[in-house]
């Protein structure tokens, strides 16, 4: 059984590698044949050279560090509020009834639409940027936690009530273990959403961060820098998601 799982995982990995190699080869071939407009879509060697230059000048490192710091702050706050409120709402049908309409109305509003209000509320400092990133992750985490809590087996809940199990035991021994897969799904998707909000957040009078670097490069037609920033965000997001997935695999061993 174990060998089959290893072979299956190896097969998936080879498929991913094959896809990446195919994209890279196609990109290089089209660039060499002059089928790519360098202003619209730079060649892969040009992207590599730009990445190397920005890295050696520590420009990329500086912007990465600042964006990662902002994401960790916004994401950390969204996790704290999303998980806590999600558990409370999931356990209380009354609270769910009160908050459901509010969540359904606010959740679809894109973070970029909040920028005018954020500037009025928080000014142009770091707080506004962190708040926009927080919004990106909060509702995703909240909804997934609520769904996970609600999926607790009703029969087990009734048994818990009959046996008069203390509330903290009811939550930590019965409700949370069953909800953990949903919670981790919310945490992972929420993290991705936070990274998607970086560019919007760094539009708020920023002179640092990957989002700023991308938007500044766009103004000067530096498509190679734009794509380098986009790839960097994608890679950092993937690494952080993989770390979360690893933590999940160690905690949710039964899933």
- Integer average pLDDT: 86
Structural class: mainly alpha
Strand residues, percent: under 5%
Question: Uncertain runs with pLDDT below 50, 5 residues or more?
Answer: none
Q: What does this entry look like structurally?
A:
- Helices cover 81% and strands 0% of the residues.
- The chain has eleven helices and no strands.
- α3 (59-91) runs antiparallel to α4 (93-106).
- It is globular, with a radius of gyration of 22 Å.
- The chain has helices spanning 2-32, 44-56, 59-91, 93-106, 115-122, 126-150, 154-162, 167-196, 198-201, 210-219, 223-251.
- 30% of the residues are buried.
- It is mainly alpha-helical.
SSE diagram, text form:
Elements (H helix, E strand, L loop, with lengths): L1 H31 L11 H13 L2 H33 L1 H14 L8 H8 L3 H25 L3 H9 L4 H30 L1 H4 L8 H10 L3 H29 L4
Helix pairs in contact: 2-11, 3-4, 3-6, 3-8, 3-10, 5-6, 6-8, 8-11, 10-11
Describe, in short, the structure shown.
With 255 residues, the protein is mainly alpha-helical. Helices cover 81% and strands 0% of the residues. Helix 3 (59-91) runs antiparallel to helix 4.
What are the key terms here?
255 residues, mainly alpha, 11 helices
